[in-house]
Amino acid sequence: MNIGIAKPFIGQEEKQAVLDVLESGQLVQGAKVEAFEKAFAEYHGAAHGIATTNGTTALMASMMAHDIEPGDEIIIPAFSFFATASCILSVKAKPVFADIDPDTFCLSPEAAEAAITPNTVAIMPVHLYGHPADMHRFEEICENHGLLLLEDAAQAHGAAINGRKVGTWVTASFSFYPSKNMTTGEGGMALTNNDEIASKLRMIRNQGMNQQYKHEVVGYNFRMTNLMGAIGLAQLNRLDDWNDKRIVNAEHFDAHLTSVKTPTRRDGVTHVYHQYTVRVPDSVDRDRVVQHLNSKGIGARVYYPKPIHQQPIFQELGYVDAELPATDVATQQVFSLPVHPALTEEEKNYIVNEVNNIC
Questions:
Q1: Is residue 125 within 8 Å of 77, Cβ to Cβ?
Q2: Eight-state DSSP code of residue 187
Q3: How far apart are CA 90 and CA 69, in angstroms?
Q4: Both ends of the chain: CA-CA distance in Å?
Q5: Mean pLDDT by 10 residues, the chain (359 residues)
Q6: Which domains does the chain have, with CATH numbers?
């Protein structure tokens, strides 16, 4: 067996779409990107989609569009990919780390509210592993404290709460890295319902311009290529089917894995299982389990072995004493199993048997 943690699907539709763009000669930020932005926004129920080079630049542009300033504090989880925090540093603001809900691995609303200070301007939950954060509770907290609510939705294409898809609260950022539920190779997307923010995002990703050679804000080249937009359009057509297969695969693991704690799915939530992440019991050496599974051809991975506040740069910035007990425990106990749509029944059963035998 050789079962990767992810398996991007590039079919004939994507290949033909790329060839069509190459033959057109319009390679950068053209009609395919515009069509992809519109389709991705409509799919999630947002008014505007603004495509970027990757998920990190979508986050950075969102910070700039909302006028985040030096010294502003934004509350985020430390149990996430580094870009959740680096986008805040990019505008010289301050990430403030709060603990996670140990069941969903998402930012805890209670911990986030407790971390609010006079300098707090925003809370940005992460829909980690494809499980939506408690957005209704965060919306309430932000309204009560006069804060901006952002979303890091890099791992949650199509995830929803009671039928409302993530990415539709204020401004959200998605990633299309190859391991995600859909891909453009690289690429990112900001979604927003705010016309003014959408206009600023479009300028920021295009050297500060809405029209050629009229630079209204400080901007960058965060433009998505037409090649990536064409791939994204083809992928979006199959996203629901792929997410359904991920859910079916996850339900198979839920029913048959007996030696680890399987993922939580809150009532009313559509979990799209970007990763199928389990916990080992206290007495089990997680790293030994992962090494064993890798030796058996199962691409188990740890997301994330070191929380952001313990990364060297944040230790240098003075986050040495941050106390996040649920985060610390999760980094020692969790690992992820392949859950991608291409898994066969034989592969799923093989994974189950190997995990149950080793733990």
A1: yes
A2: B
A3: 10
A4: 20
A5: 94 95 89 97 98 98 98 98 97 97 98 98 98 98 98 98 97 98 97 97 93 87 97 98 98 98 97 98 96 98 96 91 93 98 98 94
A6: 12-236 (3.40.640.10), 239-358 (3.90.1150.10)
